[in-house]
Design brief:
Helices cover about 40% and strands about 20% of the residues. The chain folds into five domains: about 100 residues, PriA, 3(prime) DNA-binding domain (GIY-YIG endonuclease, 3-Layer(aba) Sandwich); about 70 residues, Helix Hairpins (Orthogonal Bundle); about 180 residues, Rossmann fold (3-Layer(aba) Sandwich); about 180 residues, P-loop containing nucleotide triphosphate hydrolases (Rossmann fold, 3-Layer(aba) Sandwich); about 100 residues, Alpha-Beta Plaits (2-Layer Sandwich), CATH 3.30.70. The protein has 19 helices and 30 strands. About 0% of the residues have low confidence. By secondary structure, the protein is α/β, with parallel strands linked by helices. A hairpin with a 2-residue loop joins strand 28 and strand 29. The strands form seven sheets. The protein has a seven-stranded parallel beta sheet with strand order 8-9-7-10-11-6-12, with helices on both faces. A six-stranded parallel beta sheet has the order 13-25-24-16-23-22, with helices on both faces. It binds adenosine-5'-diphosphate and zinc ion. The site of zinc ion (ZN) has 7 residues, from loops. Adenosine-5'-diphosphate binds next to helix 6.
Amino acid sequence: MKQKRYISVILPLRLEWEPSYSLPDNIERIEVGERVKVKFANKEYTGVVSEVDIIPETDPKKIKPVISIEEGIGKIRSEEIDLWRAVADYYLCSIGEVYKAAYPQMKVNMEEARASAREKAAARKEKLTESIRQRIAKLEIRVEKRKEQLAKAKKESTREAAVKALDEAVKDLERAYEALNNITKGKDRINATEIIYKEIQLSPAQSKAYSDVKTGMAKGKPVMLNGVTGSGKTEIYMKLAQECLKKGRNVLYLVPEIALSRQLEDRLYEQFGDSLLTFHSGETAASRMNTTESIRESAVNKRNYILLGTRSALFLPHNHLGLVIVDEEHDNSYKQDSPAPRYNGRDTALMLHRIHDCAIILGSATPSLEEIYNCRFGKHHLVELKERFHGSEDADIEIIDTKAERKKNGMRGNFSIKLIGRIQQTLDDRGQVVILRSRRAWASAMQCSMCGEIVKCPHCNVSLSLHRGGRMLCHYCGWSAPYSGKCGRCAGELKNLGAGTQRIEEEAAALFPKARIARLDSDTAQNKRFEARTIRDFAKGEIDILIGTQIVTKGFDFSRLRLVAVVAADSLLGIQDFRADEKALHLLEQFRGRCGRREEKGLFVIQTSQPQHPVYQRIANNETTALNSSLLQERKDFNFPPYTRIIEINIKDNFEDRAERMSERLAADLRKSIVREGDTILDSPITGPYSPVVDKVADQHIRTIRLSLKKDRTLTSEKEKLRKAVNVFEKENRYDGHITINVDPS
Ligand code: ADP
Ligand code: ZN
């Protein structure tokens, strides 16, 4: 009888192990990465073969056979499985959870996929044809000019140079004709390397930074590019990407959110043509499927790609990766909080760089403290670019003290008369204005004027917001109810607290009746088309004042934007979180960077009731480096990241008393399991359980335990102890599904 063969399989489940299966006799050939149908706990799953010809640990009689091998779908690459493993180890989740995130069980309608692919290809072809035609027109003029120059050239040496210049121009033109010809002949995809779109000419400052970047990469180190907004970081990325593609290797270009990358996408498309692929959650499943396929095929047909995407793009079947770019590395939206894997895109990109042994560049105008730390300790290579390409300086800053203004009767609603004057002046000069207010809705809370009761969500421990049109809404669980204006307890009159974006929009409309005003926040962002149109209209100058939440602080490049203002800035500082000041600093600096990107200097107005707060003062005095240093020192003194690693263990339960009891018990268990030699219970790295700021969401009571670990060689074993202790606790107490572990919470 033939010897039975066994394999281990990764299943899309929260399993701590990879179960074994036997191969039916009729299957001769099987490889790691192939997908198989198997049964687990009486349900069928598509799993990934992780090892072949293993010696099973369980009784062979109990091992079930593989049902079938999935034919026709691509094999998972070993680099992908390596990444899943690295993510699972680091973020303390199961490899199955990572697999599930990388390959969600989406019902992909292939028909739809094909149709949408054809549509997209046609649109791109048209765009590409148009841009080549334009290029040809320019090149024809250039050839004519060169001919004239040749005719005029008298001396032998200038004649020679002129002949050469003409020759080059003619060659460029021929190449462009050929590209056009290829397209009309129906060759859909064209490698950017075949057409030289635009030679990227770096400024002297950029060239210096660029060669510094290359030095860091030559040492095999991740490079941190700290460049002010408008300094040309993107140009440097594109130059690096171009070089990488020329060498026949691929590029992954990560951005935190896609909303702000529309302009970037156009810019990259102009440079890279059809080598550009995109991948983000705003696309249809079909189009994402196509991108996945293109990437998988590129391993075979050697068509190079540059992929622009959000964090989930890390899990595509990347091959021959030469460069990873992490734009806006400081951005918190790189972190996924739910569901598992609770990973940070930036840190996972670093894992990917190690697995593929490729170059990586992280960029930001406001680097995270983590990156500042990494550069200080020589783990990453720091490159600075302080000069703006268009030469304009940072926007001036004006801090307006709302308390003082109120005393002087200098406020009109949420706008100070001073700010109103600034806005009016900007509008008169035909400039544009962006106003940031960090809360959406009309009012962010309601309070009874009789009994003082704050109106809360019946399912969450948060106050309800009032939205235009008279509905009260919970921003956590989505519960809503009509607004009666009366307190539910004593029927007293409700008053509104905290004006949100809708109210600011109304006030602005009343103050500037002639201005064209629009709003961007997560309410309007529900409608992606509307959002894209608003951004486009603003770019075209068809909107004068744009009001919005955090979203307006990021990424956009508008040439006529002269004034950015934040009303009620203090809500940015009030968060109970050790990162609050860092976040506020990033947000305000990013926002400031939006204006004055061109020749003209812009103005940044901050309305606050705490004008002396160090965050504002440091920004106003251009002392962000000093502020970063003092924040870093604070982190060191209080044992916070990046000096330590924080892991949050969250307990969620329908019953408050059980959440309380279980979290107490778990904390006690953890204190026992995670002790280091010589530690007393007092030095325990564990704090809590405590109630988070919002301790009830959608009827789930939440308690948090925090583990703070030293960053030394004990880190991995401590994390392993935590994982084991939590598993044991879940089993012993039959407390499955209530506990989540979040490594490096944002
Ligand atoms: P950052 O990414 O640092 O914010 P960008 O790369 O977007 O800066 O550059 C800001 C502006 O300056 C853009 O409009 C860009 O086209 C222009 N720019 C920067 N560097 C160059 C360059 N070397 N050649 C041409 N334009 C450039
Ligand atoms: Zn709620």
